[in-house]
Amino acid sequence: MSNIRDPQDCTTMAEVRAGVDDVDRRIVALIARRFGYMDAAARIKPDRTAVRDEWRKADVKAKVDAAAAGAGIDRALLSRLYEDLIETSIAHELDVYDRTRS
User: Fold this and answer.
1) In terms of CB atoms within 10 Å, which end of the chain has fewer, N or C?
2) CA 83 – CA 100 distance, rounded (Å)
3) Regarding the domain delimited by 7-101, which CATH topology (the fold level of the hierarchy) does it fall under?
4) b/e map of 57-90 (b: 16 or more CB within 10 Å)?
5) How confident is the chain (102 residues) per 10-residue block, as mean pLDDT?
6) Residue 80 CA to chain centroid, in angstroms?
7) Tell me, what's the pLDDT at 43?
8) CB-based contacts of 82: which residues, under 8 Å, 6+ apart?
9) Under a CB-based contact definition with an 8 Å cutoff, are residues 86 and 63 in contact?
């Protein structure tokens, strides 16, 4: 059983920090999985020009916006975070595409 408290149950900064550290570990694991999908996309896409897909970028951002609204999270904050995540993902995918096709 985890000793990580829910945010509303924290009474000390040690509990808050333990919770943040736990969330960060989970986020890193999820980002690693997301980048695994970027590796797969680089392998599957037929050519380098297919890596940047503005329609898909807008679709992802719209879905994140809806999820943020549903979760009661600042939508502008998530939009900025995802803009960086998506652009970093595209750069990674281009790098993988170039390394595996040269």
Assistant:
1) N
2) 26
3) Chorismate Mutase Domain, subunit A (1.20.59)
4) beeeeeebeeebeeeeeeeeebeeebeebbeebb
5) 88 98 98 98 96 97 98 97 98 96 81
6) 12
7) 96
8) 60, 61, 64
9) no
Please say whether the beta carbons of 65 and 75 come within 8 A. Answer: yes
43 contacts: CB under 8 Å, gap ≥ 6? 96, 100
| Cα 46 to Cα 39, 54, 63, 68, distances in angstroms | 13, 17, 26, 33
**Nearest residue to 52 (alpha-carbon basis) of 41, 40, 62:** 41
Q: What CA–CA distance (Å, rounded) separates 86 from 34?
A: 10
Other C-beta atoms within 10 Å of 56: how many? 12
pTM: 0.90
**Residue extents of the structural domains in the chain:** 7-101
